[in-house]
Structures are given as structure tokens and as C-alpha cells.
């Protein structure tokens, strides 16, 4: 949300033809502060946002109110003392977990991996070893523990709603060996029984599909003012999309791919058959 708010302020400044130094002068700050604000690195005060918007010529009260709401949500999120903080140097994952912790719904498309929210510890450990991110076994174990704690969001009084669409290849890939794969498939069958989980498999026979470019997750929040946030991974970085038009595009592609996928009941039958083959 901080990045999206910063991007909105950057767009307004560019449209107004103002420099960062001019913007900084309007709020009696340094150019460095404007840089940090526009990149979403720091929480933003309402008075600064109001002055900047007036300086940029924004005269739409609804647009200003939307920016102030984004700033409020961002400040609240930054104050959250999540259980994951200090568990491990999670890097870019820390922000994702913070969003996941307050989300109301997540839609995820996975082409090569089982979604993190439903991975068993053995599967997570095998991935960590293969990635080579951590050499210390204790770090790998802590990473597995963090992922297991995340799964608590699927339970409780206000559980996270999860809609996962997984390519058949992710189910067949033997990560950790046949025993781990079989246990992981059993875990998927258990998760699929939860009322707040919708699990679908995109079979090989579906051929080309809208999400063939790569995996991503769409994070939705209960707050009406909070737009969907899209997260996608590359080999070296985590990409975020906090733009209404682009996030709507991801939602459309996800829905189209889900329609090409097996129904939940048929998906469970396929997973069970694969489990029996291991």
C-alpha cells in the first residue's frame, strides 16, 4: 500500500510538472524525503499528503480521501508486530507475510510448486535445500516453521479464504522424493475439505491458458478502500502490482484459468489418483 500511495503521489507530481525539490519545499522537507515517500519506503503523515496534493493541483475531494485512506492503512500495517518478525531473516517475504496476515482472501496460481500455505515441512525443507538460500540447517528449519505458522490463517474464527489453482505438473513433480510427494498430496486432500478453501487443478490436457506466463498471488482485504495487491516471484526478486487496472487484469486471467481447470471435486479425484501412484 505504501508503494501504491507513493506511486500515486509521483504520478500527481509528474502531471503537475513539479520537481522533487519543489515538492520538498512545499512541506519544508528534503528531496530525500520525497524520494522515500514516492518509493513507499516511509509512512506518510496526512498533513504532508494534503499539502502535496494541493501543491500538485488535486481538487477532487474523493481522490484526496482515497489517498488518505491508503496512508492510514499503510501506517496500520507498519505498526503490526507480526509473529514472524525475528523468526528468520525473511527478506522480501516479510512484507508478503504481513499482507497475508491481514488479508481476507488470496487467489493463487501455481505452475510448478505447491502453494506455500499448504506445504508440509518436508516439502518446504526440500525446496530450501534445492534453492541453496540457506546453508545452516537451523535456518532451513526456521524457514519451515515460519511457513507452517502461516497455515494457521486457514483456521480459526475468521479464516483466510484461499482459492488455489495448481498446474498438474506441480502435483507430479517429486520434490523431496516419492514419500514426501505422497504425504504432500495427502495434505492437499485434507486442506481441500475446509469450507474456506477452493482447490482446482489445471490438467495437462487444458493446453495453452491465460496464466501460462508464470505464477502469482492476488491478495484481497476486507477494507473497502483497499485494492487487490498482486505478488509474483522472479528468481532474484519479488514483484508487486498495486495498480487497479493491472490487478484487475490479473484477476481476469486467474478467473479464465480457473474456468479451464477441473472442478474442485474432480481435482480431488485427480490428486487422490496421483497419491495412489506414489
Name some characteristics of this structure.
alpha/beta, 12 helices, 6-stranded mixed sheet, Endonuclease, Chain A
Please characterize this protein's 3D structure.
The chain has 278 residues and is α/β, with parallel strands linked by helices. It folds into two domains: 2-79, lambda repressor-like DNA-binding domains (434 Repressor (Amino-terminal Domain)), CATH 1.10.260; 93-277, Endonuclease, Chain A (2-Layer Sandwich), CATH 3.30.870. The protein has helices spanning 2-16, 20-26, 31-38, 46-55, 61-79, 93-102, 121-131, 137-150, 168-172, 178-192, 244-260, 264-277; strands at residues 105-110, 161-167, 197-202, 216-220, 229-233, 238-241. It has a six-stranded mixed β-sheet, with helices on both faces. The model has no long low-confidence stretch (mean pLDDT 88).
In short:
The chain is of the alpha/beta class. The chain folds into 2 domains: 2-79, lambda repressor-like DNA-binding domains (434 Repressor (Amino-terminal Domain)), CATH 1.10.260.40; 93-277, 2-Layer Sandwich (Endonuclease, Chain A). 52% of the residues lie in helices and 12% in strands.
Classified by CATH, the class of the largest domain is: Alpha Beta
The oligomeric state of the chains shown is single chain
Tell me the fraction of residues in β-strands, as a range: 5-15%
Task: Give the helix/strand class.
Answer: alpha/beta
Radius of gyration: 21 Å
User: CATH topology of the largest domain, which one?
Assistant: Endonuclease, Chain A
Tally the helices. 12
Number of strands: 6
